[in-house]
Automatic annotation (TrEMBL):
<feature type="binding site">
    <location>
        <position position="73"/>
    </location>
    <ligand>
        <name>isopentenyl diphosphate</name>
    </ligand>
</feature>
<comment type="similarity">
    <text>Belongs to the IspH family.</text>
</comment>
<feature type="binding site">
    <location>
        <position position="217"/>
    </location>
    <ligand>
        <name>dimethylallyl diphosphate</name>
    </ligand>
</feature>
<feature type="binding site">
    <location>
        <position position="41"/>
    </location>
    <ligand>
        <name>(2E)-4-hydroxy-3-methylbut-2-enyl diphosphate</name>
    </ligand>
</feature>
<feature type="binding site">
    <location>
        <position position="95"/>
    </location>
    <ligand>
        <name>[4Fe-4S] cluster</name>
    </ligand>
</feature>
<feature type="binding site">
    <location>
        <position position="73"/>
    </location>
    <ligand>
        <name>(2E)-4-hydroxy-3-methylbut-2-enyl diphosphate</name>
    </ligand>
</feature>
<feature type="active site" description="Proton donor">
    <location>
        <position position="125"/>
    </location>
</feature>
<protein>
    <recommendedName>
        <fullName>4-hydroxy-3-methylbut-2-enyl diphosphate reductase</fullName>
    </recommendedName>
</protein>
<feature type="binding site">
    <location>
        <position position="217"/>
    </location>
    <ligand>
        <name>isopentenyl diphosphate</name>
    </ligand>
</feature>
<feature type="binding site">
    <location>
        <position position="73"/>
    </location>
    <ligand>
        <name>dimethylallyl diphosphate</name>
    </ligand>
</feature>
<feature type="binding site">
    <location>
        <position position="261"/>
    </location>
    <ligand>
        <name>isopentenyl diphosphate</name>
    </ligand>
</feature>
<feature type="binding site">
    <location>
        <position position="261"/>
    </location>
    <ligand>
        <name>(2E)-4-hydroxy-3-methylbut-2-enyl diphosphate</name>
    </ligand>
</feature>
<feature type="binding site">
    <location>
        <position position="217"/>
    </location>
    <ligand>
        <name>(2E)-4-hydroxy-3-methylbut-2-enyl diphosphate</name>
    </ligand>
</feature>
<feature type="binding site">
    <location>
        <position position="189"/>
    </location>
    <ligand>
        <name>[4Fe-4S] cluster</name>
    </ligand>
</feature>
<feature type="binding site">
    <location>
        <position position="161"/>
    </location>
    <ligand>
        <name>(2E)-4-hydroxy-3-methylbut-2-enyl diphosphate</name>
    </ligand>
</feature>
<feature type="binding site">
    <location>
        <position position="123"/>
    </location>
    <ligand>
        <name>dimethylallyl diphosphate</name>
    </ligand>
</feature>
<feature type="binding site">
    <location>
        <position position="41"/>
    </location>
    <ligand>
        <name>dimethylallyl diphosphate</name>
    </ligand>
</feature>
Amino acid sequence: MEIILAKSAGFCFGVKRALEMVQKALQDRSAPVFCLGPLIHNPAVVEELEQNGLQVIDNIRNLPAGRLVIRSHGVGPGVYREAAAQNLEIVDATCPFVKNVQQLAVFLVDQGYQVIIFGEKEHAEVAGVLESVGGNAFVIHGQEALPESGIGPKVGVISQTTQDIAGYQRLVSELIAQTKEVRVFNTICLATSQRQQEAAELSKKVDIMIVVGGRNSANTKRLTEISQASGTPTHQVESSNELKPEWFEGVQQVGVTAGASTPDHQIDEVIQKIRNLGGKQAVSAESIETKEN
Ligand code: F3S
């Protein structure tokens, strides 16, 4: 059984950067380090950080003096205000690509556009972008209908960084058919679109796909959906313990990919377990392509 690992599986730039910032902050034991929500959508990594002293909190009211980590998903202006009022030192790990989405939302509102955000309303990133414009934007997810209140003459569109490009293109085409001016920014991050494209290509070549990553990680879920859409049996797992031997019966080729918040050691453990179930040494999807070209 051949194991093919997607080229860009695992940590993205924004997650690596956030982890490094937190690890650095934790080295200085002079003040507590708080994180508003789990740093990344990966329970094992979060647990390890907590063991090293990170305190995950769900609101910042009445904190003692210390440092507050803003996650790569970013937050709205309210958290910065509240943190300043409490004299908390900010460790701002907002991914620069997410900051860009927030700034574009503000720009579009200032320019008089009706803003539409393509993304999940409950996701922290989208909540932060919405708050940046005082809630003055519509959020549309997947194939949801356009706002009932109607589309104005000038529409500005941005996307949550981890959404899929095909869905975004669908929404933009629908908008173009309905109004005169549509200003679109492609804010889907390159790491995300590459990973999704690779998942789509790899899943078409293999008999089964394994997607490694946190169950509440939006970008991991998207990889699973993309793989499933190609008709290949796809299983999303958080750890190697969840792999079931029967998934691999009669399988010749296994594709493996992982979300942006999945550390290399979790991917390695999954690959090792598949090897124990009869898999050969894993090869990168890159080397497969090179062989074919
Ligand atoms: Fe940033 Fe893209 Fe990762 S937006 S956090 S580099 S998935």
